[in-house]
Amino acid sequence: MPLPSRVKLVEVSPRDGLQNEKNFIDTAVKIELVNRLAQAGFPNIEAVSFVSPKWVPQMADGAQVMAGIQRGPGTVYSALTPNMRGFDAALAAGVDEVVIFGAASEAFSQRNINCSIAESIARFEPVAEAAKAAGLRLRGSISCALGCPYQGEVSIASVVDVAKRYDALGCDEIDVADTIGVGTALRVGQVMRAVTEHIDPARISGHFHDTYGQSLANILASLQAGISIFHTSVAGLGGCPYAKGATGNVATEDVLYMLHGMGIETGIDLDAVVEIGQWISGHIGMKPATRAGNALAARKANAQACA
Ligand code: HMG
Ligand code: MG
Predict the structure, then answer these.
(1) Does 3 map to a domain?
(2) pLDDT per residue as tens digits for the range 2-23
(3) Which ligand lies nearest the alpha carbon of 175?
(4) Does some domain include residue 2?
């Protein structure tokens, strides 16, 4: 299959990137992060979650973040909404897209959203209906599509099953998520091809955590399977509080470097993203988890020192 000439990147750092941070990050910093990402050209930013603040305290200020940002005209702003309470908050906050998030693993579904897969789909039904009625985009995320921290192996059939259920709910986009970053390229290609036997590849995205350093290879395998939407996070921020040991999402800088190097357009300014990654990492007090971002930042510092 020929590779796509253009890829859509969904920047998930304000949500997936920050949700697992132990120290509460100021709302003003979250707002600046979202604004800077929009200015860098991201077509879609996963900005906030409307989940229980007891479960994920870092995301408690979603309404304030949405109220404080300057909306870029070309940017879709998304929020995670596990139930109607979350949906109502997301609608009131003016998001463009809501994300229902389930799993291909029963064990993870219980740990993450406190219900079985079947119960989660029943909970999502009114959310999906309400999203359609309000004219919002609807996205469905399938966690543990490549493996589960609690049950281990996850069958391709169970990934396909959840994808079909999301399709029946009217999801515009469906995310195949490697929550703990265990997948390798061959299996990722198999999973993507199995899902796209039933659903248009233009509506499927890849969401890869980089725990085992496989994300770029997995993105290439997905591109070869016809996928052209990927979730990334500046400086490789990220992790799920209910997937212990999993590290951040694949770094946006690394993915942009790879895609642009392959002649694939994204519409995103890599230099701006490198600066954002270094800035937000400084705020959190971590070294950016991006090879390309750190190399480009070092090159720029050297050039400035020599000037
Ligand atoms: P529950 O305890 O089963 O539900 O939680 P509940 O309805 O009994 O509610 C419990 C409490 O939460 C109540 O408050 C509710 O009012 C409140 P209390 O009476 O105890 O004071 N509550 C809410 N508050 C604010 N907003 C809401 C909301 N709903 C209930 N929407 C629930 C079920 C789903 C709410 C809970 O399990 C939860 O919030 N889980 C959060 C899970 C989460 O955010 N995980 C991280 C995101 S998923 C992820 O990172 C994976 C992804 O990146 C893809 C991948 O990598 O795999 C997307
Ligand atoms: Mg994730």
Answers:
(1) no
(2) 899 999 999 999 999 999 999 9
(3) 1
(4) no
